[in-house]
Write a sequence for this structure.
């Protein structure tokens, strides 16, 4: 499985806000176990998608100089769920950005239905930080290969 | 100028939100790590929230200094903070109760310097 939990960006307002799309599909293996006969997008993966959206917003603000690590989710609320065929839109706003890290607020919606809201805190670690080796790669909000998503977003616009 | 009580109430609210606590757990004497269960990652979240709540800027390392008395700092001997180390703590953490700590300056007790009261004093000095 590739650790991409957004499909493309549809809005990017540098240093301010970003919107990304996640299309939920029955082709995703895990939906057949979560749950049998009632496939819904796992909340944990929605948090990951929201963190990827917000993490790229924060990373771009610093010209991708830092490794942006998902550090803490002080608050998350689920109001609804997302099923195969639904298009989730993650709308992130940058709340804080400083040398040590940053924070975002993200809302997940399907059309005009609010599905989830989260506050997410990130920290920056430099590539030579000894702590980095102890971090599971899945905690990485992005590495350079995830940046392809931004390109895909552009391609989708026909640009 | 906010009163000490107003500052405490806002700090209390901030910690309740950041650490998922009940109001009555956040007393002035409570230590952030031991009593309130804060982890290193929470300090950044707390700084963000304090900046918003009080509309101030808190530069890196001023409220929560990093790398205090690490093994290679030269400020530690036999698991205790040396006099030079204590002087450094007083300088870096003027809002903490270093005098009380100095009575038994075990390195392992350094985290206890981070108390709710320390945050309140720090904020009071910035308003």
């Amino acid at each position: 499985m590739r650790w991409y939990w957004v499909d493309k960006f549809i809005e990017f307002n540098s240093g301010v806000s970003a919107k990304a799309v996640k299309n939920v599909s029955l082709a995703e293996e895990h939906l057949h176990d979560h749950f049998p006969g009632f496939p819904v997008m796992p909340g944990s993966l929605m948090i990951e998608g929201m963190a990827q959206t917000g993490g790229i917003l924060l990373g771009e603000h610093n010209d991708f100089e830092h490794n942006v690590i998902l550090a803490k989710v002080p608050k998350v609320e689920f109001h609804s769920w997302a099923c195969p065929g639904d298009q989730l839109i993650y709308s992130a706003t940058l709340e804080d950005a400083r040398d040590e890290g940053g924070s975002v607020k993200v809302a997940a919606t399907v059309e005009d239905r609010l599905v989830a809201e989260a506050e997410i805190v990130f920290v920056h670690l430099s590539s030579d930080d000894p702590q980095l080796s102890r971090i599971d790669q899945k905690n990485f909000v992005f590495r350079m290969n995830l940046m392809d998503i931004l390109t895909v977003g552009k391609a989708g616009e026909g640009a | 100028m906010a009163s000490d009580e107003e500052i405490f109430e806002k700090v209390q609210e901030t910690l309740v939100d950041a650490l998922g606590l009940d109001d009555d757990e956040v007393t002035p004497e409570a230590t952030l790590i031991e009593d309130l269960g804060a982890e290193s990652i929470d300090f950044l979240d707390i700084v963000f929230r304090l900046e918003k709540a009080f509309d101030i800027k808190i530069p890196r390392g001023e409220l929560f200094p990093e790398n205090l008395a690490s093994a290679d700092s030269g400020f530690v001997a036999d698991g205790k903070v040396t006099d030079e180390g204590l002087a450094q703590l007083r300088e870096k953490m003027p809002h903490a109760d270093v005098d009380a700590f100095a009575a038994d300056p075990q390195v392992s007790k350094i985290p206890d310097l981070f108390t709710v009261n320390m945050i309140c004093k720090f904020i009071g000095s910035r308003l």
Remarks:
- Residues 4-126 of chain B form a domain with the Non-ribosomal Peptide Synthetase Peptidyl Carrier Protein; Chain A fold (CATH 1.10.1200.10).
